[in-house]
Design brief:
The complex is a heterodimer of chains A (1185) and B (224).
Chain A: H1 3-30, H2 40-50, H3 56-69, H4 75-84, H5 88-101, H6 106-113, H7 118-150, H8 168-184, H9 195-223, H10 226-236, H11 250-266, H12 268-276, H13 281-313, H14 323-330, H15 334-374, H16 376-381, H17 388-412, H18 419-431, H19 433-442, H20 448-472, H21 479-484, H22 505-527, H23 532-542, H24 561-572, H25 574-590, H26 603-617, H27 619-631, H28 637-649, H29 655-664, E1 668-672, E2 678-681, H30 683-689, H31 702-711, H32 717-727, E3 736-741, E4 747-754, E5 760-766, H33 768-840, H34 847-882, E6 890-893, H35 894-911, E7 915-918, E8 924-927, H36 929-946, E9 951-959, E10 962-969, H37 1003-1014, E11 1017-1023, E12 1027-1035, E13 1059-1063, H38 1067-1077, E14 1083-1087, H39 1090-1097, E15 1104-1108, H40 1117-1128, E16 1134-1138, H41 1143-1152, E17 1155-1158, H42 1163-1174
Parallel strand pairs in A: 7-9, 13-14, 13-15, 15-16, 16-17
Antiparallel strand pairs in A: 1-2, 1-5, 3-4, 4-5, 6-8, 9-10, 10-12, 11-12
Helix pairs in contact in A: 1-9, 2-9, 2-13, 3-13, 3-15, 4-11, 4-13, 6-7, 7-8, 7-15, 7-17, 7-18, 7-20, 8-15, 8-17, 9-13, 9-15, 10-13, 11-12, 11-18, 11-22, 12-15, 13-14, 14-15, 15-17, 18-22, 20-22, 24-25, 24-26, 25-26, 26-27, 28-29, 33-34, 34-37, 35-36, 36-37
Chain B: E1 2-6, H1 10-23, E2 28-32, H2 35-44, E3 51-54, E4 57-58, E5 61-62, H3 65-73, E6 79-83, H4 88-96, E7 101-104, H5 109-120, H6 137-148, H7 152-162, H8 167-174, H9 178-192, H10 197-204
Parallel strand pairs in B: 1-2, 1-3, 3-6, 6-7
Antiparallel strand pairs in B: 4-5
Helix pairs in contact in B: 3-7, 7-9, 7-10, 8-9
The chains are: A alpha/beta (1185), B alpha/beta (224).
Chain lengths: 1185, 224
């Protein structure tokens, strides 16, 4: 058959489904909400929706199973029959409880019973998801396979994998997702009925029954010749042994029936149609007959069809699962094949859609929402729009995710794996909910941990005995594990646990997993205590009817009814929330406990709201939401105190108010009475101090709490002190407050205040954040300080580097200047020599030429001189800048210095035709004379250089305690805008360039620096065109207080005062010696020989002797010296004068320890020798090293 | 007449030679580039030298060490300082340390010739320094006495001590036994009347020419 034809028919069919669902929804909207419907239509629809249990598995797989195992296929139909027949009470009880609890799904149902535990809900959801995914995949596979057969594509695993967009299963998955979203996830409240959807499902059930029966009849009567003929042929066929006899594999029959029964109750989609969508007990009553009839009509034709298939194709030629479609095609009736395909399609889509809806609700309510609600942003995000849109969005995404996962599973599973086996595996997994489900309804002792452990263990055994072997054919695990068991332990073989070697692995796995599940469930439940909430829920489940009041809630706040309404609107939407609560209040007013007049809600109202929310987000989440929203309410401490006061007035009846007030306070509060026993407390107190709930009761002695705290190391040393002081009530200033750090790091601020009746109230505030902030602040501060320190160090380092660099620059400049000066000096000397030569060459060259050379050499000298001055000035500036010059300040008379400068500059001024005048001064100043002299000298230089006509005046004026030394000139003047810059280096004003004189621009810079070094002020006054006055202000020294030291002596001659004895036989020489040495300050004694000399000495001993070698007597000079030395008893330094340059005399003199000097006497040499004597005994005269 | 010009700058050496040759046509100018050269030349002429013009910066002698070495070796040979440094403190010290004169290199040719003539005639020639208080003169004289008492070898060792070299290193530098250096160092400490090597090094600082001092500058002559 053409693929496009099949696709078109399928599309048409799906479109019809959409239309029916849409029509169903429209119709529902017109019917009054909440109205019960017990019409025939409603009953029929309910019974037909139950047929969702019969999926494409029934459609194709049961035929395959019948072909393989005869009547074995019946087991999965026996289960539902058992439930609807003898076990009908279970179903009705479950429906009643689910309605009362507003349960939305099987997970929600089980979790509600076990203390509304989120963990149970999530676990059930995840197991259900894992169990159902392959089941959905199976539906997709059935469609794909039948499509393949119908369109004539090669069947089986040989078919190349198509890309998903060409895959019919993918198209089916997409349209199913769309359908589920459109009709299954329309309202927030999952417990609300989806009438349109259910109508469509019922329609599908009809289609698949009709299709199945039509095709089966066609096969039985069109292909074969009626049932009688078929059975006869089958009995005669040797290939079909035992198919007609009922199997004797009783364990398998029993286990499969049990599993099927549990699956019929617990499969998410089955629970949904049977329980959630149920609209009244009448429906169940009717379904009790209608659905078995449906099953029987299916089952009756199953075996004959299988037999015809086997007779036609044999057992191996074709997959028995596809008999239903292969037989009509084989008989040449494509039309009947198409009918089969449509029947299979309807069976598959019905199951897929409802599963997707049920699973999305579970995933959303039990997995995603609890996680979302933990996010801090959640509350903010939903503040405006409410939670309802978020819920819808999450559910729609969940639908898509479930179908995507299912499709993925379909793509990954082995295509050749029999449909029934996949289905049964899912059944066994879902059957693990059985113990918890039944225990919920009928065993009050069952506990949360019991069901969790049972479910976990059962699921694990399922995975080990069933899942593991089914994937074991691949490469994941080795065959030996399957055959010999892990580590070779035979009784652990997955397929034959504990040696139980059943033929049917499904029954084997079901037996062990359910057994383990039940045992663990019962054992753990018996060992454990139930929580109060669990107890009350157990009561509500087991003794069903009206949901019992929830136990006293751990919170004791008193919410207003308006708060509850706001909460409901937030979660289920405005319309639904408001109407539901109004309906509730109306009911309360009509019959039921009276409503508090002040608008406060009571426990009933809170319970109702929680149930309402359960319908939207599941029992577990609803509990969290209610508790959280009531806990979140904060009151200030003073509010709380005020409420406390009010509460104490209305003691007794106000007890609840007091509790409410205490719970509403954000702080932990504990009230101690006069006997130091607990009088009141709130939950926050227990939370903050992590005290066990059962420790703190009314009347618990404070000592008990302290003992408990001490035993777990709660107190530090300081805290103990605080506690001790605490007892001494009179000694304390009340209120008394202290801060306590708990071992877990939280910091509590504890405030104690006295109660008028005796006893006290302690308030605990969690100030951990504040403390952490303070600590952070402190740390930030320290970091800042550290940074400042580092920066300071950096700066200091930078400063040191800069100073170093400056010093280096100065050294460089000094060295460079020095080294530059050397060759300059040389150059100047060369130039002088040249000039001398030219002068000396008079007459040798033409006069004109010589004159020109003279001029040139003069210019050369002048320019060299200028360069020297420039370098000298530079050197000075660098010295001043580097701080190498330390001023030597003292008091001195200013007159002489000015006088000297006057003399020098008068000559210079005269050369330039200027008048120069100096005003004498007798003042005494305090300064460094040399630096001050330099300052004035530079000022005068400037004045003379820049003045072209007129004159220069130097004078000083005494002004209070200052003396102002001024240099006036009649030069061009300095413009005001230039006055600030003239002190900068190399700053020459344009005006000065008009003259021939070119300054170097460093004079005033040196003045400025030197004055600054001395702390003198330099003042500049100038009038353009009139002249300039530079002044330097120096401190006046009171001459009376500080007498000026006498003008210093000229250089004290070091030879002065030396007593020199000169001995020579020539009187003229003696006279000459005296004339030479006496001006040096020496005291000269002379003698022509030893006798005269001794006489002249008159007993004194000279400092040195200068003796001639030839004395004209027998005794020569050396002998005389030796004699005199021995007479004086001293080795007096002696100089031997001789004209005899012979080596003999030299040697003799050296031997005698005398120095020798050639004649005629050279004054410089003599003076040098005197200096040497003056500086001390020349130690090793003559002894050259 | 024999005049030794001791300057390590060949150009300066040459220029001075010219100046002296022009001013003293009958003089023999003996150029020396280092202190060892000077002592060798003096020894060769058996101390018959009219004047040594000694630069303060020589490769083997920095500052006034050479002045004292010459003093102790050849007390009759006049030594005048010839320097580019015109710092008054340095001039003051040179004279206190027994120099025969102090001749700045910046002098004009004529003035330089006059100065040399003055020194030869027995004058202690130095540039004029008005109002120089001459502070430290007595101190200088005292130290001059102490330095004068050191032998040339001890003067060399003192210079090395000032550089911070160890006895062993000094022995290596001068090619003598370490024990000898040790003896010399203790003699130096005694003669300088100091208690430690460090104090000796500080004392030796007085022989050095360092931080530039602001010199008095002559009034600049007319540039014409």
């Amino acid at each position: 058959m053409q693929a496009w034809w099949v696709l078109a028919i399928s599309a048409l069919y799906l479109a019809m489904l959409f239309a029916i669902a849409w029509w169903g929804d429209r119709r529902t909207n017109r019917i009054q909400a909440g109205q019960r419907r017990n019409t025939v239509a409603a009953v029929l629809i309910y019974a037909l929706t139950l047929a969702i249990y019969n999926t494409s598995w029934s459609f194709y797989g049961s035929v395959g199973r019948a072909a393989a195992g005869g009547l074995d296929f019946l087991t999965i139909y026996l289960g539902p029959l058992l439930v609807l027949g003898p076990g009908r009470r279970v179903l009705t009880d479950a429906i009643a409880v689910a309605k009362a609890q507003n349960a939305t799904s099987v997970s929600d149902f089980i979790a509600a019973r076990y203390g509304k535990s989120g963990l149970v809900a999530a676990t059930v959801t995840l197991v259900a998801l894992m169990a159902t995914l392959p089941y959905i995949a199976l539906q997709l596979k059935a469609i794909a396979v039948s499509y393949d057969v119908l369109t004539g594509a090669v069947e089986g695993s040989g078919r190349p994998d198509l890309p998903f967009w060409q895959d019919s299963a993918f198209a089916v998955a997409i349209s199913m997702a769309l359908f589920a979203i459109l009709f299954g996830v329309r309202h927030v409240e999952a417990s609300e009925r989806h009438r349109g959807l259910m109508l469509a499902i019922a329609f599908e059930s009809l289609v698949k029954l009709a299709a199945f029966l039509a095709v089966a009849l066609f096969i039985m009567f069109g292909i074969a010749d009626g049932p009688r003929d078929i059975f006869a042929r089958a009995a005669a066929d040797p290939r079909l042994p035992g198919l007609l006899r009922p199997g004797l594999d009783w364990p398998a029959w029993i286990m499969q029936t049990v599993v099927a029964a549990l699956a019929f109750l617990c499969l998410p989609q089955a629970f949904h149609v049977a329980v959630v969508e149920n609209e009244g007990p009448g429906q169940v009553r009717a379904a009790r007959w209608l659905y078995p009839a449906y099953l029987v009509s299916l089952s009756v034709v199953m075996l004959p069809v299988a037999l015809v298939g086997l007779l036609t194709f044999g057992s191996h030629a074709i997959n028995p699962d596809s008999f239903m479609i292969a037989l009509p095609l084989h008989a040449g009736s494509a039309r009947m094949g198409l009918v089969t395909f449509l029947g299979g399609l309807s069976a598959a889509t019905g199951m897929v859609i409802v599963s997707a809806v049920a699973l999305s609700t579970m995933v959303c309510n039990d997995v995603v929402m609890p996680l979302l609600m933990r996010l801090p942003q959640f509350g903010q995000h939903t503040r405006v729009g409410g939670v309802a849109p978020v819920l819808l969005r999450v559910r729609r995404l969940a639908v898509i995710a479930v179908l995507a996962l299912a499709y993925l599973t379909y793509r990954l599973t082995d295509r050749a794996y029999p449909l029934t086996l996949i289905g049964l595996m899912s059944f066994v997994a879902v059957a693990q909910f059985g113990p918890g489900f039944l225990g919920a309804l009928y065993w009050r002792r069952a506990t949360r941990s019991g069901v969790l452990s049972g479910l976990g263990v059962g699921f694990a055994v399922w995975a080990y005995t069933l899942l593991l072997p089914s994937v074991g054919n691949g490469a994941l695990i080795s065959d030996t594990l399957l055959k010999a068991g892990p580590w070779g332990v035979g009784w652990l073989r997955p397929m034959a646990l504990f040696g139980l070697n059943w033929k049917d692995p499904i029954s084997h796995a079901a037996f062990w997993s359910l057994l383990a599940n039940c045992l663990v469930f019962i054992a753990i439940s018996l060992m454990q205590e139930q929580s109060p909430l669990e107890r009350s829920q157990a009561r509500a489940f087991v003794v069903h009817g009206e949901p019992g009041l929830s136990p006293a809630r751990p919170w004791r706040a008193v919410p207003a009814l308006s708060d509850l309404q706001a909460l409901a609107v937030h979660y289920v939407g405005r319309e639904r929330g408001e109407t539901a609560l109004e309906a509730y209040l109306a009911r309360r007013r009509a019959d039921g406990p009276p409503i508090d007049g002040s608008g406060l809600a009571d426990r009933h109202a809170v319970d109702f709201t929680e149930t309402l929310l359960s319908g939207a987000v599941g029992a577990a989440s609803a509990r969290v939401i209610i508790a959280g929203s009531l806990h979140g309410r904060m009151l200030s401490r003073s509010d709380a105190m005020a409420m406390l006061g009010e509460a104490s007035e209305a003691l007794g009846s106000g007890r609840r108010l007091l509790e409410g007030a205490l719970e509403s306070v954000g702080q932990g509060i504990c009230v101690m009475d006069a006997a130091f026993t607990v009088a009141a407390w709130n939950q926050r107190f227990l939370d903050l101090l992590a005290l066990p709930r059962d420790l703190v009761r009314v009347g618990t002695p404070l000592a008990d709490i302290i003992r408990f705290n001490t035993s777990r190391g709660e107190y530090g040393a300081d805290d103990l002190n605080a506690l001790v002081v605490n007892r001494d009530r009179d000694a304390l200033a009340w209120p008394y407050t202290y801060v306590r750090e708990r071992p877990d790091g939280t910091v509590l601020e504890v405030l104690y205040n006295r109660m008028p009746s005796g006893g006290y109230v302690s308030t605990y505030t969690d100030v951990t954040e504040r403390h952490r902030a303070a600590a952070d602040l402190k740390e930030a501060n320290e970091r800042l300080e550290q940074r400042v320190k580092t920066r300071t160090e950096d700066l200091q380092q930078a400063k040191a580097q800069a100073e170093q660099a400056n010093a280096a620059k100065t050294r460089f400049l000094a060295a460079a200047s020095h080294d530059l000066l050397q060759p300059l000096n040389a150059a100047r000397l060369f130039a002088s020599a040249l000039r001398e030569d030219i002068v000396a060459a008079a007459g040798a060259v033409p006069e004109g030429h010589r004159q020109r050379e003279l001029e040139l050499s003069a210019n050369l000298l002048a320019s060299l001189r200028s360069t020297e001055f420039l370098l000298g000035d530079l050197l000075d500036i660098s010295s001043l800048d580097s701080g190498a010059i330390k001023p030597d300040e003292r008091a001195f008379a200013i007159g002489p210095i000015l006088g000297e400068l006057g003399v020098e500059f008068a000559a210079l001024a005269g050369e330039r035709g200027l008048t120069f005048r100096i005003v004498p001064s007798g003042l005494t100043v305090r300064s460094d004379p040399r630096l001050l002299r330099r300052i004035v000298q530079n000022l005068l230089s400037n004045a003379v250089r820049y003045t072209r006509t007129g004159g220069v005046l130097l004078g000083c004026r005494h002004h209070a305690d200052r003396v102002r030394i001024s240099v006036y000139d009649t030069g061009p003047g300095i413009a005001p805008e230039d006055q600030a810059v003239v002190f900068e280096e190399f700053r020459r004003l344009q005006a000065s360039d008009t003259g021939a004189q070119r300054g170097l621009g460093l004079g005033l810079a040196i003045v400025d620096r030197a004055a600054r070094l001395l702390g003198h002020r330099v003042i500049l006054r100038s009038v353009m065109g009139r002249g300039t006055c530079f002044s330097v202000e120096v401190p006046l020294q009171d001459a009376a207080l500080f007498p000026v030291p006498a003008p210093t002596m000229p250089v004290r001659d070091m030879v002065a005062g030396l007593r020199v004895l000169c001995i020579d036989n020539e009187p003229a020489i003696l006279l000459g010696m005296r004339a030479l040495m006496e001006p040096w300050g020496c005291r000269v004694t002379t003698g022509r020989d030893g006798k005269e000399a001794t006489a002249a000495l008159a007993g004194t001993i000279p400092d040195l002797v200068v003796a001639d070698y030839h004395l004209g007597t027998a005794e020569h000079g050396l002998g005389l010296i030796a004699r005199l030395r021995s007479e004086w008893g001293r080795q007096v330094p002696s100089l031997l004068l001789t004209a005899d340059r012979s080596e003999v005399v030299r040697q003799a003199a050296m031997a005698a320890g005398c120095d020798i000097l050639g004649k005629p006497v050279r004054p410089a040499s003599l003076r040098r020798f005197l200096a040497a004597v003056a500086l001390g005994e020349p130690s090793d005269v003559g002894g050259a090293p | 007449m024999k005049i030794i010009v001791a300057d390590d700058h060949p150009l300066v050496q040459e220029a001075l030679g010219h100046v002296l040759a022009q001013s003293f046509p009958d003089a023999a100018i003996l150029p020396c580039l280092c202190l060892a050269d000077v002592t060798a030349t003096v020894a060769r002429h058996r101390a018959d030298i009219d004047l040594v013009l000694l630069d303060l910066h020589m490769p083997d002698s920095q500052g006034f060490a050479g002045l004292f070495q010459m003093l102790s070796l050849y007390p009759t040979v006049p030594v005048a300082i010839l320097s580019a440094t015109e710092d008054p403190g340095t001039i003051r010290r040179a004279l206190d340390f027994g120099a025969s004169g102090y001749i700045p290199k910046s002098l004009s040719m004529a003035r330089m010739a006059d100065a040399i003539r003055g020194v030869l005639g027995g004058e202690i020639w130095a540039p004029e320094h008005p109002n120089d208080g001459g502070g430290g003169g007595h101190d200088n004289a005292e130290w001059a006495r102490r330095f004068a008492s050191l032998s040339p070898q001890q003067m060399r060792i003192l210079a090395l001590v000032r550089e911070g070299r160890l006895n062993k290193q000094i022995a290596g530098d001068l090619g003598i036994a370490e024990q000898t250096v040790k003896v010399h160092v203790s003699t130096i400490l005694r003669k300088l009347q100091v208690g430690s090597r460090t104090q000796a090094a500080v004392a030796a600082d007085r022989l050095a020419i360092h931080s530039p001092q602001m010199a008095d500058r002559p009034v600049r002559p007319s540039d014409a």
